[in-house]
Specification:
Elements (H helix, E strand, L loop, with lengths): L4 H7 L1 H4 L4 E9 L2 E8 L2 E5 L5 H9 L10 E3 L5 H4 L2 H8 L2 E4 L1 H11 L4 E4 L5 E4 L2 E7 L8 E7 L2 E6 L7 H7 L4 E5 L4 H6 L5 H8 L7 H11 L6 E5 L8 H14 L6 E4 L9 E3 L9
Parallel strand pairs: 3-4, 4-5, 5-6, 10-11, 11-12, 12-13
Antiparallel strand pairs: 1-2, 1-14, 2-3, 7-8, 8-9, 9-10
Helix pairs in contact: 10-11
Bound molecules: zinc ion (2 copies).
């Protein structure tokens, strides 16, 4: 398979720099979310919201296979975060890390036996070389969480599916070097959308729905530190947002407060992004 130039270039990085932590957004949008993290000898998925076949194909573009995964971290039970679980976790017997309410909701939906490893929301735990901090997010699921993943080469925050950014959320991801942040919709495009009933629009706009571009920009302003190097804009609605719109709103916001050191990238729903390699402390940082 011929790799896109950006991916081929990024894959070549380990031969030039001795780095051992990489993050690849395999896909992100309202239709499905899945990211791959490789930290030293630990290989994880964060959510499995694409089909099992798609996850396998997209891992293949970076030379990886689901069989080598050590586990899957799940933020919450909505379909766009778990639809690949049966094909991957059940078939390959991979550990699935989530809290109890999410486990119950997944079990009711999928009716398949999975190797669940439960954590309490707010607790931290380890999976191989990765320490996972968990924290509660305001979203209309049973017990949705965000993550801050500590690796030997930096900290990666996951903040998708939240209606508003609470003080707690901001504090928990402030240490991130890389942040995956939801920019779900443009408020005007959502209001003008003729395909969605009013009740769904209300749900999306509510304090337990999804972040608009403006709300995400405000959250990014509060989170940004000198340590934040890379910001992924994620979970864009296909109908009610545009990548260039999300990018413009967040870039302008960060530029206004002088945070021009952050590289901003919009995650795509249908193709994997280029792997982001994080340097170990003391080595040149790529991200
Ligand atoms: Zn979602
Ligand atoms: Zn959700």
């Amino acid at each position: 398979m011929r790799l896109p130039n950006s991916i081929a270039k990024a894959l070549a990085a380990p031969t030039l720099f001795p780095v051992s932590v990489q993050l690849t957004i395999l896909g992100s949008g309202s239709s499905g979310n899945c990211a791959y993290l490789e930290a030293d000898d630990t290989r994880l998925l964060i959510d499995a919201g694409l089909s099992g076949r798609q996850i396998r194909q997209r891992l293949l573009t970076i030379g990886r296979a689901p069989e080598s995964l050590n586990g899957i971290l799940i933020t919450h039970e909505h379909t766009d975060h778990i639809q690949g679980l049966t094909a991957l976790a059940a078939r390959l017997n991979l550990p699935v890390y989530c809290n109890r309410l999410t486990q119950e909701a997944i079990a009711a939906q999928l009716q398949t036996r999975l190797d669940f490893r439960l954590f309490s929301t707010g607790a931290s735990f380890e999976v191989g070389a990765v320490t996972v901090d968990t924290f509660s997010l305001p979203h209309d699921a049973c017990d949705p969480v965000g993550f801050l993943l500590h690796t030997s080469a930096g900290r990666i925050g996951f903040l998708t599916d939240l209606g508003h950014a609470t003080k707690l959320v901001i504090e928990r991801v402030r240490a991130a070097n890389v942040l995956v942040l939801e920019t779900n919709h443009d408020v005007k495009l959502l209001q003008d959308d003729t395909r969605r009933p009013w009740s769904i629009k209300q749900r999306i706009l509510s304090r337990h729905g999804h972040l608009s571009n403006e709300a995400a920009a405000l959250a990014a302003e509060q989170i940004v530190s000198a340590e934040l190097r890379h910001l992924y804009l994620a979970h864009l609605s296909a109908d009610c947002n545009r990548p260039e719109l999300a990018q413009r709103v967040v870039s302008q916001s960060l530029a206004q407060i002088g945070a021009t050191h952050v590289r901003i990238e919009t995650a795509a729903p249908d193709v994997p992004g280029a792997p982001l390699w994080l340097a170990q402390p003391g080595l040149a940082r790529l991200c």
